[in-house]
Amino acid sequence: MHTLYSILVASIYLSTLAGAQKHLRSRHRHVARTSNSTYAINKTYTVQDFYQGEDFFNEWSFFTAADPTGGNVAYQSLQDATAKGLAYVDGCDNSTVLAVDSTSSIPAGGNRPSVRITSNKSYSSGLFILDAAAMPVGCGTWPSFWSTGPNWPYAGEIDIVEGVNNQATNQVTLHSGTSQACTIDTTLSKSVTGHVLGTNCYSTPTADAGCAFSDTDPRSFGYGFNNAGGGVFALLWDNSLGMSVWHFARSDIPSDITNRAPNPANWGVPVGFWSAQTCDIGANFYQHSLVIDTTICGNWASSAYSGSGCPSTCSAMVANATNFVDAKWILNYVAVYH
Fold this sequence. Notes:
By secondary structure, the protein is an alpha+beta fold. It contains nine helices and 18 strands.
């Protein structure tokens, strides 16, 4: 969620083709879902925490400080977000909606009300699954589902879902902050479905690009994700093996996920993989809280705005309330397995 400076250079170049970071790399490799011990051991995971409906209000905290990424948002408390209709549970399907304000008159360059929530529990390993029916879209938006530990960047950051403006596909990024090595194994990275955007995960407050993969499936982010009926993102965090991230569009979700008995060894090759052979996972990532938010403009979305195909400027777009009508998360659940 921190600014991705060096990756941004590549993203602006790629975005010139379709207002999106990774459109140039649009060929999605089909991979059969067969067991692959490189990325996951053959194990059925059991549920540890299952967040759904009101759980996001009772077991997560609403962040109300200034946006650390310099975004044009005013993050709301639970009381204010519910009063303004920015956080609520849909009584029809028990989904949780977290939205950006799309009705208020806000001046250009002002701060539009939005929502950022953080899990009260923290985790140092596990299988994490987000099922969303929709994610925020619109020029200037910067939605993210991520995790972070104490005293950033020393306990690390994992960006599972992230992108800006009209980005075509999802970007998955790790940020490490210790002296313990953490890089992408370029040999193994050739076999995943995503494309490498950077191999050195080490990050500082002034150089925080991290190491990333861009998905190649247009259903993994933004309008493509929403038009496919949403889908699932899964992070397998195994300190002895590494970290793997998968995305499944709604029609492709494995039955073991639907049945709440997931076995990632049956899911095939992931979008991205960070091997424990080249990254000390336990030393670089620990005590992570989960975060779901939507900021506007900020360091990344503003810098990428001119190459995104969006009109005018990001600062001016803040004033266009109707631009944010679909800037909302619709969450079916977040599950943590062990």
